[in-house]
Structure formats: C-alpha cells, structure tokens
Amino acid sequence: MPVCTTCGVQYDDVDPEVCPICTDDRQYVGAGGQRWTTVAEVSAGHRTVVRPEITGLTGIGTEPGFAIGQRALLVPGEGGNVLWDSVSSIDDAAIARVTELGGVAAIAVSHPHYYSAMVEWSDAFGGAPIYVHADDRRWIPRRGSVRTWDGDTLEILPGRTLINTRVHFAGGTVLHWPGPDGRGDLCSGDIVQVVADRRWVSFMYSYPNLIPEHPDTVRRTVRLLRDLEFETVHGAWWGKVVESDGSGVVVRSARRYLEHLGLTPDF
Fold first, then answer.
1. Any idea where the Metallo-beta-lactamase domain is (predicted)?
2. Facing residues of 212 across strands?
3. 51: phi > 0 → left, psi -120 to 50 → alpha, else beta; which?
4. What's the CA gap between 114 and 267, in Å, rounded?
5. β-bridge mates for residue 167, sequence order
C-alpha cells in the first residue's frame, strides 16, 4: 500500500498522482512532484527506535528521519499503553521492545499529518482501536480499527483524555494524562507546538506554509486547557519538550500570540 514520502501517510487506495493530505494548503507536494514508497521500503532503509523520554514516557521514532520526522509516544497507565501519534516505520525489534513495555491497548492521533502507518501499528498489537476525531473523518486514509469520536473530550483509557482544540485541523487533538507523579503531562503533537525556545508554544493552521491559526481557535484552546494541571508539554519531535509550568506556558503563549495580532486577550 502506498506511503507518501512527503507526509508519510499510508493509504489503502489512492490516485497515484496525488496525496490528498499534501495537496491541502496545510501541507505541500515536494518540488520534485508526488512520490510514493511503502512501509516495507521505509522500514528496510530506516530503523524504528524506542527509547525513554522524560516523565515516564517512551518515544518511538524513525532514524534517519523520514517525511515530517515526528516521533510517537507510548503513554502508560491503567488498562494498558496508549500509542500517541504514529510513525511510518515498524519493524520486529520495535514491536518486541514495545511488547516488553506492555504493548499497545489503544492508539490516538493528533491530526492527519501523523496518521502515518497507524493501521500497521494497530494490526501489530491485535487490532488496537485507533481514535480519530470525527471532524477529521474525511482525511482517514485506511479504516482498519479506526474509531471516530465527537465532542470536546474523551477519556480513552483511565487517565488518558483526548481534548479537541481544533488547532491546525478541525479534529486537532491533544492528550492529557496525570503522569507518574500526578503533576500532569500534555502530549501535544504540533497542535500546541513546542517551539525552538522551549519556554513557549505556538498555534498554526499551516506550519510549512506559515499560515497562522484563527484567534478564536487559540482562545478555545486556552478555555479547554487552562484548568488542567500539566507541568510538561511533549511536542512532536525528540527534544521538543516544555519541562516545567506547562499550563502557564500555554496561557502566556496564547496571550503573546493574540497581542502580536493586535488583539487584546480576554482570558
């Protein structure tokens, strides 16, 4: 099954001339035109790495980097691990290591750019359910064990709650969990983007094309997140982590964002 080399998403059946996700104005088709590969080819030329992140999480990434280059996270807790976001590679060594860590009981994906090989990962762990917000239903590339959900929040396993902020995509979602010490973590993908200066986050409709997110969506994000306790914000890439005062960082960053648009924050 074809995998787009620009976004890394695997499709069941697609027009070989175009990747629907990359032709949307939040992404792009590479300068050399549309190119395709497969999960098997990606996995043969890359290694799927599984290594610890801070605050009790485990990161899963592809080395050398492929497509957008994000890394997924394994979020532990009662009822089993949640695989947060996905990558385009999967190999026997990674499956064995994740199995040692308790396997995957559920998968949740922040937005379409990170669907990657989510069905392959689900199949490797007994058809683990994949949670995608219903507002992104049109982008789902493979049905597999996908379950769509509606509304603002959904607890998919004890202590692992999805929150639909609508940043980046209408179904743009983050995951909150209390963490091993109760101080709280936010797994944000690039919905709440941890930027180069890790004292801040930001909010974009399109990252590669530099289209800012709508102010009302940023305000919505603050309303949904400001009363949650989380010390840490885990972004989409290795090392992109806000390590302290995560909830305060989100509020201050949203305030700065709105002020730079000439608007007065109302929170």
1. 69-237
2. 204
3. beta
4. 31
5. none
**Residue 167 backbone phi and psi in degrees, to 5:** -70, 140
Strands (E), the chain: 3-4, 36-37, 47-52, 58-63, 72-75, 82-84, 106-108, 130-133, 146-149, 153-157, 160-164, 173-177, 185-189, 193-194, 201-202, 204-206, 211-212, 232-235, 241-242
Report the C-alpha gap between 127 and 191 in whole angstroms.
26
Residue 22 phi/psi, 5° resolution?
-80, -20
Which residue type is seen at 35? R
List of domains in the chain: 3-260 (3.60.15.10)
Taking the C-alpha atoms of residue 53 and residue 252, their distance in angstroms, rounded to an integer, is: 25
3-class state of residue 122 by DSSP: helix
Q: What is the pLDDT of residue 267?
A: 84
Mean pLDDT (10-residue bins), the chain, 267 residues: 96 85 96 94 96 92 97 97 98 97 98 98 98 97 96 98 98 95 94 96 97 98 95 96 97 97 91
Its pTM surpasses 0.85: yes
- Under 8 Å between Cβ of 211 and 205: yes
Name the strand (E) or helix (H) holding 139. Answer: none
How many Å apart are CA 182 and CA 99, to the nearest integer? 25
Residues 143, 138: Cα–Cα separation, whole Å: 11
Long-range contacts of the stretch 58-64 (C-beta < 8 A, 24+): 58/98, 58/101, 59/238, 60/87, 60/94, 60/98, 61/87, 61/238, 62/87, 62/88, 62/89
| Cβ neighbours of 196 (radius 10 Å) | 6
Q: Which of 254, 140, 151 is nearest to 200 (CA)?
A: 254
